Amino acid sequence: MPASQPPEKIGKMKKLRRTLSESFRSIAFKKEDSSFDEICVTKMSTRSCQGSDSVIKPLDTIPEDKKVRVQRTQSGFDPFEKPASQVKRVHSENNACINAKGSSAGKESPKLRRHSSPSSPTSPKFGKADSYEKLEKLGEGSYATVYKGKSKVNGKLVALKVIRLQEEEGTPFTAIREASLLKGLKHSNIVLLHDIIHTKETLTLVFEYVHTDLCQYMDKHPGGLHPDNVKLFLFQLLRGLSYIHQRYILHRDLKPQNLLISDTGELKLADFGLARAKSVPSHTYSNEVVTLWYRPPDVLLGSTDYSTCLDMWGVGCIFIEMIQGVAAFPGMKDIQDQLERIFLVLGTPSEDTWPGVNSLPHFKPGVHGSNRFTVYSAKKLRQAWNKLGYVDHAEELASRFLQCFPKNRLSAQAALNHEYFSNLPPRLCELQDMSSIFTVPNVKLQTESGDSIQVCARRNSQGKASSGSKH
After folding, report:
1. CA atoms within 13 A on the CB side of 98
2. Exposure of 229 by Cβ count < 10 A (0-12 exposed, 13-18 middle, 19+ buried)?
3. What is the pTM of this model?
4. Checking DSSP bridges between strand 249-250 and strand 276-277, what pairing results, if any?
5. Residue 137 forms beta bridges with which residues?
6. Among 181, 415, 451, 456, which residue carries the largest CB count within 10 Å?
7. Are the C-beta atoms of 363 and 369 separated by less than 8 Å?
8. Which residues of 188-209 are buried (b: 16+ CB within 10 A; e: fewer)?
9. How many CA atoms lie within 13 A of 50 on its CB side?
10. Which residues pair with 159 in a beta bridge?
11. Mind listing the domains of the chain with CATH numbers?
């Protein structure tokens, strides 16, 4: 500023500068404030879950008298379930609270009082850790512990999957993936996610409680399950897989431990930690998926280009295990041993039986060398698992699942129409997604001595009971 300017003019210019600065600050505040709702809508559409103090995200339908308004806090807000109009309304009310508090000189406004004082502070609500009572520990993994629990809201039993959060690593991506996928899956043969509880230390997924899994069920009935049990369990497994595959979702970790069995005999797909939605084209999947015994040969050989056929190999392994009473391919050493067991039964693949196999990273056929496979010829499945020959069409269906060449494997939807299921009521194929197969007449279970569950023997049109011996 030139020194020749009179002091009065300099003072006016400083005053104008202050006025302009305040105006710009006011405009910037209003712009940031008005974009709040846009941020809400954006975060709602992406289902973002940022910050370790994110507000809880209840997933199932909550009665009107149980709903709690979403409030803006320092750590963020919850865009997970609220429509944009409701988020906007809450934001406006919060502004009104702030303005009222600033202008009332210590007087509490009605709106502020409504937000800060719930009608029943002691009543349990969805989305809060103290709304669930832990009853007993069911299992513990590397990053999560599962408890049997009870909801204080409705008194129902639940399974609480408590995932430990580390400050450096944040929320495990597998937990985020599992929650985001299960939130959109509503099917009677898929475990239901009730609620999510997010704190600084843990992320808890609240599931419906299912009292056992297929692995435990088979342990209680060694030597193979009753053929009718196998048929209904397999039908439900295929029904659940068909549902997720039609939505381009792969489970990627099918094994008996991840198939829950309810006390009424309903089978439910669970543990979607490794599941992912498949977008086409995508060829960047990890080959470090699926427990070794149920992992298909293409993945064992290093392929990362796979689709829903990945899950169908696991179906074949589980099908045989239910019938025979032992794992189909129980590799005891490593991937090499696992592949040898597969090729011993199905034959060592070649370019003729599996186009492109020679280009897979870990495939080296031959009889010499530590990383080469012995050349075997294919056998009939009943030579390896004799009980397949006791049930009509079981061997043929199993062979359609256990194809080394991925593209030759039968899809879940096609398998539901296989002749193996021909003696089941046709209405089973017409059920709505959330309808259990046990709502169909003559499809039912009965409790035998002890705690065993057995399917009632259905009779065909000739009046003959279905084949198989009791377990």
Report:
1. 9
2. buried
3. 0.67
4. antiparallel
5. 147
6. 415
7. no
8. bbbbbbbbbbbeeebbbbbbbb
9. 13
10. 148, 207
11. 129-208 (3.30.200.20), 212-455 (1.10.510.10)
Structure tokens at 347: 């034959």
Rounded Cα distance between 8 and 125, Å, is 65
Structure tokens at 61: 């339908």
For residue 131, the 8-state DSSP code is G
Q: What's the confidence (pLDDT) of residue 43?
A: 36
How far, in Å, CA of 161 to CA of 145, rounded?
Answer: 6
What residues contact residue 344 under an 8 Å CB cut-off, 6+ apart?
376
The yes-or-no answer on residue 37 being catalytic is no
Rounded Cα gap, residues 186 and 319, in angstroms:
24
Closest C-alpha to 245, from 298, 202, 190, 191: 190
Going by pLDDT thresholds of 50, 70 and 90, the confidence category of residue 444 is confident
- How far apart (Å, rounded) are the C-alpha atoms in residues 178 and 171? 12
pLDDT in tens, 170-199: 667 777 777 888 888 999 999 999 998 888
3-state DSSP call for residue 445?
strand
Q: Is the pLDDT of residue 354 over 50?
A: yes
The angle subtended at Cα 273 by Cα 314 and Cα 285, nearest 5°, is 70
C-beta of residue 283 within 8 angstroms of C-beta of residue 304: yes
Contact at 8 Å (CB) between 436 and 263? Answer: no
Rounded to an integer, what distance in angstroms lies between the CA atom of residue 50 and that of residue 73?
13
Which residues are CB-contacts of 189 (< 8 A; sequence separation ≥ 6)?
Answer: 236, 237, 239, 240, 243, 266, 267, 268, 269
Per the DSSP assignment, residues forming a β-bridge with 455 are: 445
Q: Tell me the residue type at 96.
A: A
Residue among 195, 253, 271, 298 flagged as catalytic: 253
The Cα-based distances of 364 to 302, 379, 462 in angstroms read 12, 21, 53
d(CA 258, CA 315) in angstroms, rounded, equals 12
Mean of pLDDT over the chain: 73
Query: Which token pair is 353?
Result: 């039986």
Locate tokens 């993994």: which residue? Answer: 141
Query: How many other C-beta atoms can be found within 10 angstroms of the C-beta atom of residue 70?
Result: 21
Phi-psi group of 446: left, alpha or beta (phi > 0 → left; psi -120 to 50 → alpha; rest → beta): beta
Please, what sign has the CA dihedral across residues 416, 422, 423, 424?
Answer: positive
User: Whole-angstrom Cα distance, residue 233 to residue 254?
Assistant: 14
Positive or negative: CA dihedral 118, 120, 122, 127: negative
Residue with tokens 């381009």: 248
Q: Which two tokens stand for residue 8?
A: 């009065």
CB 97 within 8 A of CB 231: no
